[in-house]
Write a structure and sequence with these properties.
rod-shaped, 2 domains, 50% helix, three-stranded antiparallel β-sheet, alpha+beta, 5 strands, two-stranded antiparallel sheet
Length: 124
């Protein structure tokens, strides 16, 4: 879904600004705001995609977005667990990649040797 900021014209001269979250197009946001508030629309500004999970969670719907808690490190600095988990997963992947790059020839020779030995024993 897209988020739109719609400015409505009031008779007293103080404009009203509303945010519309559930519209795909500008015309749809314009018509929705106009019909809900009964005021003429001055302008519509696109604010990007809205996060449906946050909207659902705010409105108390059945859908819930679970954010991992931020842990406090020494000195009271917030630490993002998602980022640490990503780094912890990249380290073993990079280590495996380095091992394969360094030892590709012995791995290839051992694999071919075992395959030849297994096929030789199978044919006996």
């Amino acid at each position: 879904m897209n988020r739109w900021e719609v400015t409505l014209e009031r008779e007293n001269g103080i404009n009203k600004t509303v945010i519309v979250d559930d519209c795909y197009y500008e015309d749809e946001a314009r018509l929705l705001a106009e019909s809900q508030y009964g005021l003429p629309v001055l302008k519509v500004i696109y604010h990007g995609q809205s996060n449906v999970w946050d909207v659902s969670n705010r409105n108390g719907n059945d859908y819930t977005w679970y954010d991992l808690p931020k842990q406090r490190a020494r000195g009271g600095v917030n630490v993002d667990i998602d980022g640490l988990f990503g780094v912890m997963m990249i380290i073993p992947a990079l280590a495996t990649l380095v091992i394969i790059i360094e030892y590709w020839l012995p791995i290839l020779l051992i694999t071919c040797g075992v395959g030849a030995f297994m096929s030789f024993n199978k044919n006996k």
